[in-house]
Structure formats: structure tokens, C-alpha cells
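Re: Re: C-alpha cell formats

Sure, here are both.
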Amino acid sequence: MDIRLDDLSGSATRSLLRLHLEGMHANSPPGHVFALDDAGLKAPDVTVWSAWDGGEILGIGALRQIDGQSAEVKSMRTHPDHVRRGVGRALLEHIIAEARRRGLRRLSLETGSGPAFDAALTLYRRRGFVNGGPFASYTQSAFNQFLHLDLDCPEPQASTLPEAEPPPTWTPP
């Protein structure tokens, strides 16, 4: 697996991003999708990587710098043909390593609830992310949830963030 910077110019990456956005809209209530589109992922505070096996895209992931000490994991998506092969884990490890290289102290993410989000939540929690409160400009709702990884802690981490109850499971109509 080759993980490399991605400028979103390739059709395979754009197609996977489109699939990601469609999935977020299909599995989230109206007004609760915070996934970045093509323009959002091209912002100067966002870095995007894609994972490849030869000429085949396996997945994408991004890091959005919030400030000098924290960043957000964005747009994590494994291609449906490659789930359960460690693609998400490899991309997440790559993003965490880059955050540490930048000297960041905390990684955060916002995600939804329900079956469509369970695999991602399992991945993040196994890696040491813990439930916490909203960050940046997010606000809490019955659908979204926030996870944080303290990069100052030795691994596995013990959270110093306030624990938040997971929201009730939301099921699309």
C-alpha cells in the first residue's frame, strides 16, 4: 500500500470523494453533514492523502489544521472494494504521524451515529480516540459525536478530556 499526498485532480480520487459525500448525505439527517467537498478539501489548512495499490485507489483521508496545537481528521473513506484490509487504519496512522510531526497536541473528529458509522467509530476508539465535547465551530446534536486523541499522552492514551455520552442511535427514514 502506497500512501501519498493527493491534490484531488485524479478521477479515482474524485470518484471516491463523491461516494463519500453521497454516503454521508444518505446516512445523516438534513443539516448534519460536515464532510468537506472538493473545494473544502483544497483549502490551505487541509492536507489530503490517498492510499493506492498500483493504479487502484484504496482510500482517502485528510487532516484539517485548526490552530497551532490541534487538527481534525476529515474525509476518511475506504473504497468499498477494499474494506477490512487495513486501509482505514493505515491512513489514520499516517495522519496521526503527520500530526505528531507538526508538533500538534490533539487530534479531533466529528462523526455521526448509527450503523453506517460503527466501523469508523470502532477504528478510532481502538486507536485511542475517546468521546469528548464539541470543538472548533461544531455544536452538539442528537446525531453527531466528537472524539479526541491526546497526542501528548503515551500510547495507549488515558483521556483527560471530559467524557461525553454517545448520542442516541439515529436511523435514516
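Second one below.
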Amino acid sequence: MRNASNTPVWATVVWRALAIWLPIAAAATGLAGIVYVTAQQSLRLSSDDPQIALARRTAARLDGGATPASVVPEQVDLATSLDPFVLVLDADGRLLASSVLLRGQMPDYPAGVFDTVRRRGEDRVTWQPESGIRAATVAVPWHGGFVVAGRSLELTEQHIDQLGLLVGAGWLATLGLVAVAAVLAALLGPPPVWPAVSLGPWRIPHAASPGTT
């Protein structure tokens, strides 16, 4: 079957369906990206909240006269544990007490963080002591130096991965549904008086009038 411009009807339908689908697909892609980034950042930022409270509480205890050894919780291994940990350091960044190990050894915390703490009063850092192991940490000052509180990001990163799968599945489903709707709209056809659309070397012809062969 061909229309008055000698173009196969199926080609007319495909071109018109693409003209409908492409802008909606682009908008859906942008929206999916915004949703993912917003939710991902919310999950990551909220993972700092327990460490902020722990670091400030520990610093207050130290300022109140507690010893560094008395304020650190039970020792944890960052490679296997999801429990929070605390480091207490002096004003030069030397370790005074710690509750974190990595495979039985004390990992080095980045000293540059303390320069930021001196300027801003707090710093929040994703600490990666080795590949595949990341922790959300918060550093705050106390009168004798610095307190760092942290916790593994393993659960947060699992949630972010699940979020990515959900957003991706929703995006693909949306594109599929829009494609079906676009084909149906193209089959129903706009009024035959609509002009053809030119896209450079490609040209979307007029829709065929009902009954045209």
C-alpha cells in the first residue's frame, strides 16, 4: 500500500512514530537521569548522619575530660564489619586511639582532611584505604586535635546499585510504552492536511488519507 506521494504506508507510519517517540524518549531519559542522581546523592549524604552525631559526641566527651582510649568503641575490621569506628588524633594528626583495623593493620587516614577541618570546623570524606573498601567518614576538632568517625559504605552502595536497577527498568519500560503509543498514534494518523516534515536529507511524508492505495 502506498500513499499519494508514492511512499509505502509502513514508512510513513515509522517516520511519524519516530517523530512522536524521539522527543518523549529524550525527555524520559533526562528525567530518569535526574531521578537517579538525586536519589543517589540523597542516599550518600544521609549515610554521613550517624557519623556526624558520633564524631560530635566523641569530641564533646574529650573536651569534657575523657581520655582518648575511653571514647573509642569496640575495635572493628573495616574489611568485614559494618559497625562504626572512631579515630582520635592530636593536633599534628598523630594517632592517639583508634577502633578500626584493616586486615589486622591500622590504615592511614588522609592527613589533608585535617587542614580542611582547621579552616571549616568539619569535613566529610569518602575514605578508600584499599580498592573495593570505602567508608563514609566525618572529621571534627576537639581541644587536643581531631576526631574521625566512620562506617563502611557497603550497604549504602548496595542500595545505590538497587536504585540504579529500578530506575533503569523504569526507563526501559517507559521507552517501550511510549514506542507502542507512538506507533498507535502514527497508525491513527494526523489530519491529511498536516505538512510533511523535513529533517535534512530525510523527509517525513504526509500521512496517507484513509482509503488511499
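Residues 9-46 form the longest helix (38 residues). Strands lie at 76-77, 85-90, 95-98, 100-101, 123-130, 133-142, 145-152, 197-199, 202-204.
- S.
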